[in-house]
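The material for today's practical consists of a large collection of protein records. Backbone structure tokens are a discrete shorthand for how the chain folds in space. An example says more than a description, so a record of this kind follows:
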Amino acid sequence: MSTEHNKAAARQFFLEQDRRKGPLAPELVAADYIAQIGSNPPMDSAGHSGFGVMFYQGFPDLYHTIDDVIADGDQVAVRFTLRGAHAHEFMGMAATGKPIEVSAIALMRFVDGKVARLTAQFDQLGMLQQLGAIPA
């Protein structure tokens, strides 16, 4: 697939997560998809979908704003910002009602036009500070 196709599919990957409130779009991920997000153990597509659902349950209005997409062949880097309000319990933390704005970057490898590997980092410390769980 072309670099432009991969860039468009990378954008769609995050937009579909927002639309579906967490689950990955099966048509966008390879059968052997693996995600490594922050310090979490590697996840397959079902594990990543569950991880996403957990976030959208705590932040029902969560959405991605795509800030940059850079690609070189089958490799795509996406810089994005997550925004939402902490409306429900999240990882044992009672709802605070506080908004979050969290910077993140994802490196994606495409095989046959689908995401085969995602490696992502997000500002988890900043998110916890915004929620008041950790002092600023």
Q: What stands out?
A: The helical segments are 3-20, 45-58, 124-131. Residues 22 and 51 are 7 Å apart (CA to CA).
